Amino acid sequence: MDFARLIREIPDFPKPGIRFKDFSPLLADGQAFADAVAAMAAPWRGQSLRAVVGIEARGFILGAAVARELGIGFVPVRKPGKLPGAVREVSYALEYGHDRLQVQADAVPPGAAVLIVDDVLATGGTLAAAAELVEGLGARLAGAAVLLELGALGGRRRWARNQPLLATLSY
Ligand code: AMP
C-alpha cells in the first residue's frame, strides 16, 4: 500500500512556515487506515506490552487503533487540564516557548511495558517529553512508533535513547 499518496502537505498551517502533513485522506480510506495501523503495530508484536501511550490528539487516533491491533490497553497523554484526578506532568521546550503534557498518575502499574505512539516526529520534543512522563510513572518504555518522520528536523537526535523509535514513512 502506497500510504504516501494519501498524506498531503498543507503549507503555512497552523502558522506561517510550517508545512503540515495532513493524513486525513489516509484515515478516510478504510484499507489504507487498516494497513497503516498494521504496519505501525507489526514490529511490536510478541513483546508483552501492556499498553500504548498515545499523545493528544492525532496520537489518540493512531494509538488507540495500534492498541486494538496488538490487543493491549490504551493510555492518553493530554494537554494540561484535560485529565481528571492525580496527574504527572512534564514541561518541554518548543521552538518558541514551552508546552506541557500530563498523564494520570495511576495509568500504568510500575514495570509495565508501554509503547508511545504519535502521528508525526518533527523536532522530537513531544516524543521525548512523553518518554520522560512514562518513565516517571515507573513504566518500562519499550519504544515509540510514528506514522511519519520529518528527517530534516532532526527529531531522532532529541530521542537520544536506546529504545527503538520506528517510523512507517520518512520524508
Ligand atoms: P515535535 O515535538 O516537533 O516532534 O512535533 C510533533 C508534534 O507536532 C506531533 O504531535 C505532530 O502532531 C505535530 N507536528 C509537528 N510538525 C508537524 C507537521 N509538519 N505536520 C503535522 N504535524 C506536525
Largest sheet: 5 strands, parallel
What is the helical fraction, as a range of percent?
25-40%
* Terminus-to-terminus distance: 17 Å
Q: Which value, in Å, is the CA radius of gyration?
A: 15 Å
Average predicted confidence as pLDDT: 96
| Number of DSSP helical runs | 5
Are any ligands bound, and if so which? adenosine monophosphate
Structural class: alpha/beta
Question: Ranges with pLDDT <50 over ≥5 residues?
Answer: none
The helix/strand order is EEHHEHEEEEHEHE
Strand content: 25-35%
Q: Based on CA inertia axes, which overall geometry fits?
A: globular
Q: Within the largest sheet, what's the order of strands?
A: 4-3-7-8-9
Strands, count: 9
Blueprint (SSEs and pairs):
Blueprint: E1 8-11, E2 19-22, H1 24-28, H2 30-41, E3 51-55, H3 58-70, E4 73-77, E5 87-93, E6 98-104, E7 113-121, H4 125-136, E8 140-149, H5 155-159, E9 165-170
Parallel strand pairs: 3-4, 3-7, 7-8, 8-9
Antiparallel strand pairs: 1-2, 5-6
Helix pairs in contact: 2-3
Bound molecules: adenosine monophosphate.
Question: How would you portray this structure in words?
Answer:
By secondary structure, the protein is α/β, with parallel strands linked by helices. The chain has helices at residues 24-28, 30-41, 58-70, 125-136, 155-159; strands at 8-11, 19-22, 51-55, 73-77, 87-93, 98-104, 113-121, 140-149, 165-170. The strands form 3 sheets. Strands 4-3-7-8-9 form a 5-stranded parallel sheet, with helices on both faces. Strands 1-2 form a two-stranded antiparallel sheet. Strands 5-6 form a two-stranded antiparallel ribbon. The chain is globular, with a radius of gyration of 15 Å. The two termini are 17 Å apart. The model has no long low-confidence stretch (mean pLDDT 96). It binds adenosine monophosphate.
